[in-house]
Amino acid sequence: QTDNGQVSGLSSTITVDKEGKISASDVPFTGVFDGGQIALSFHGAGFSGLSTANLAGTVRGNTITIQSIGGNGIVSSTIFTRASADSFKAYADQIRTTAKAIRLDARLTAVANGADETLASTRAWFSYAQKQMERVPQLKERYDSVENRMRELLEKEQSTVSVVERSQISVAISQLNVTVGDWDADIDMTWQRILSELATLDRNYSKIGLDCAFPEDTLRAGGASHAVIDRWRSACQSFTSGKQKAIPGCRVITQAR
Asked: pTM, whole model, 2 decimals?
């Protein structure tokens, strides 16, 4: 502030949103102070989203009260209290600590959700794989039946003199070969799906296993909330138990190929 009541300065703002993202802005201002009344012009889009914002208010002791009109026409007041640079730094440090804790909570929640989803995917994978395994005896019977039929046709073809009949038998054998080929393709696609999904589950188990190994003391020191830590711990315990139960079943299914 100058002797003739002219004021100028810099409005520094730091905030954190619900996702832990920090936003900071420095907006210069100029204005006039006279008899307890103050009028300020903030220059820059960082203030209220406007290129220039003209605001007025009052000054009493260490407090500045600025009045502004919102988009709904309602007048609101914002109170600024004089503080030291160290106080602002302490506030900014607290904002950064809060942001870190929010992000840590979000990460732990994502790990817990991922653990639950991986266990659910594992159950679905087992259900599908076991259904395909149950098809094996039926498929074997069908293969045996077709092989027997092809053997009979080949023997018949060798003993048949008529060219027309031999041609008809040859066509029948070819059709059976096509049928077996379709079955083979279906089986290969089924196994590709089973093994591909198992590989995805294996990667998820490895990643989540690492994320479940965080020391709880480190999480608490990082500002994670008790509720989120409890949720993370419970999900990781279920995840670890589910993984141990799944390993033998995975081996049985993959070895069955």
From this structure: 0.69
Please tell me the distance from the alpha carbon of residue 96 to that of residue 103, in angstroms, as a whole number. Answer: 11
CA pair distance 245, 80, nearest whole angstrom: 60
pLDDT tens-place string over residues 149-197: 888 888 888 888 888 898 998 899 899 888 888 888 888 888 888 889 9
Sheet containing strand 6-16, edge to edge, reads 6-16, 22-34, 37-47, 50-60, 63-69, 75-81
Contact 58, 37 (CB under 8 A): yes
Q: Are 193 and 176 in contact (CB under 8 A)?
A: no
Measured in degrees and rounded to the nearest 5, phi and psi for residue 256 equal: -70, -20
Phi, psi of 205 (to 5 degrees): -60, -40
Which H helix or E strand runs over 202? Answer: helix 163-211
Angle at 26 between CA 20 and CA 28, to 5 degrees: 155
- Distance, in Å, from the CA atom of 237 to the CA atom of 240, rounded to the nearest integer, reads 5
